[in-house]
Amino acid sequence: MNKKVIRFTAVWCQPCRAYAPIWDKVKESTEGWEWEVYDVDNSPIESEKYSITSIPTTVFEIDGEVVDRYTGLLNASDLKKRLEKAILNN
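Above: the chain's sequence. Below: its structure in token form.
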């Protein structure tokens, strides 16, 4: 099972800057997931592919299929819960 979590962000976005250390903390303590970050200003192809209209947005993929997405800042507990939920639902 290929598991990927993707965060869409921008340098000018205050909630995105607040989310970055939360993301990093969960990333360090979670195994089995591929973690990617895209700046919407520098990654128009990825932003269009995932239909990103607001940031921060977190996209959860299993085997190349989007199984969950969340727009807004997630706290560490909620990010972990969504990772677990994505696995359980597939």
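The domain at 3-83 is CATH 3.40.30.10 (Glutaredoxin).
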